[in-house]
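Morning!

This is the sequence you dropped in the shared folder:
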Amino acid sequence: MAKTIMIQGTMSNAGKSLIAAGLCRIFKQDGYRVAPFKSQNMALNSFITEEGLEMGRAQVVQAEAAGIKPDAAMNPILLKPTNDIGSQVIVNGISIGNMPAREYFAYKKKLIPEIQKAFDKLSKEYDIIVIEGAGSPAEINLKQDDIVNMGMAEMADSPVLLVGDIDRGGVFAQLYGTVMLLEEKERQRIAGLIVNKFRGDKTILDPGLSMIEEKLHIPVAGVIPYMKVDLEDEDSLGDHLTGTEKTEYTAVDIAVVRFPRISNFTDFQVFSSIPQVQLRFVDRLQDLGSPDMIILPGSKNTIEDLLVIRQNGLEAAICKKNAEGVPVFGVCGGFQMLGESLADPYGVETTVSSQVKGMGLLPIRTVFGKEKTRTRVKGTLAKVEGIFSELSGLEVEGYEIHMGETARSVPPLTYVTESQSGSRLAKMEGCQKENVYGTYIHGFFDKERIAETIVKALMRGKGLSDSLKDRISYQEYKEEQYERLAGYLRENIDMKKIYQIMGLS
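The structure's back. Tokens below.
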């Protein structure tokens, strides 16, 4: 059975996911077969495996860092919030329906056998399992039925590293308060403390580190600086959605609309790897500015999010910008919004309205059904119109994950030549009209040359040279970021202590 180390945090966004990914890369570098694991994840960023199963993207990033293929067993339970008090519940990659929070909390202990089965599967296949917790283990109102923090640590019999976020302030109170709210047997599992996101002179911090060790009798295993790595965030609490400052290289400004229920916003991460691009997420009319391209991302509540941007003026501004020549690209829910109408006769996504008028930028109509489409796809772009005509014939690859079926009255954007079943010429997908484009394919921009071709077209449209100096492939870029992350952790965490904690040399 695999050795384990678990990363828990004093709060959400303390840095658990990134530290887990960095440890996965370090163990890989050191010659171990390593896999990530998170028993229950709550996020709207998801991924479809080769088997057609859905899982959280945080574990996909960690699997990439470990150099292995994503497996739904790495995230057996995924909760995708549908509103403030309920979520779609996905078990072993398949949705079992929507549940209000109270109903799920009464139900979740029944999922422990599924969690144990998934963990045991990985434990037989790998040398090390890096387990990630969720939120804080000191949520005393939830501890009784916990399956993701100390409850998971007990299931896996795993030592724990507790991470505190000093950037938000009060890190010693975070660490001390969290430990003190745990039961004695839970405290004994905490084998090390980590102070994350530190800025400044560490020597000033040293007296506090000595004091917290003395008070808790738990060693500080590391002080990690605020890491400058460009990797996918797990959820909308991450820094990527707060906008990006222009640099001296900025030539192209891309604005992504930040819906209240934005999903799979990591679809656009590839653009941030191009030095000449500024990628911004905007949720207010006054922040839209004068972008060179506008992207409408996915949404877990497409109709409700459309009504939000209709009410706050963003919809009208986007339509106006498009009329002035600014290209608009919609992905999944954003693609659906661009159409003439959206209907939800079964109340799959919303109870606000069963049918609404779309933005009217594409000649499509969408109807939400009861069955979710989950499939990986490969295809070739059709003859593309407008500013992005040079995309014509390029290969595209990604996955579909949506509830709606969309009918179009014009040629598609993509001819899907391979689907999960391996069939050829499976279907026509997406839509385009002049400088408006839409697709259901998540990861559409990741395929080599897609993002690059779009950026070059936007640069030429502004009368600029389309030379992308210092450009490397997106895959190479991600590998650089994983190596940089591992380097940060090796320099600032006592890895000898970590190996000792796990019982490895």
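Headline: The two ends are 17 Å apart (CA to CA).

More detail when I'm at my desk.
O.
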